[in-house]
Amino acid sequence: MGQPMRTQLPKNVVVVVVVIVVVVVVVVVVVVVIVAVVVVIVAVVVVVVVVVVVVEVVVLVVIVIVVVVEVVVVVVVVVVIVVVVVEVVVVVVVIVIVEVVVVVVVVVVVVGLVVVKAMEE
């Protein structure tokens, strides 16, 4: 009665505990691997999304540059059209003035000749 009794686990219980521990370790490793794969997939998706966004921003910048160039071209065309119209108006006005001056000179010369002819007679 003075000695404490030692209890020994049967060998079957030890095997079951070892198997349970191994199964738990394998499950934990599998879960960790699955989580790591999911993290890698999410990281790849994030990188792809960032690349797509950067490409879209570059495309938008190119579109803005093209629109600005088109606006500049339109402004240049409008300026050229205005210059051509002003030139045409100036040419027409000059031609009309020259024609009026020529007509006045011709009339003055003819009237002068008529007056001179009349004075001679």
From TrEMBL:
Q: How is this protein positioned relative to the membrane?
A: Multi-pass membrane protein
Locate the transmembrane regions by residue number: 12-31, 37-55, 62-86, 92-116
Q: Which GO terms describe its cellular component?
A: membrane
Entry superkingdom? Eukaryota
Q: Which residues form the ABC transmembrane type-1 domain?
A: 29-121
**Keywords, A to Z?**
Membrane, Transmembrane, Transmembrane helix
Q: Chief localization class? A: membrane
Q: In its UniProt entry, what is this protein called?
A: ABC transmembrane type-1 domain-containing protein
Organism of provenance: Elysia marginata
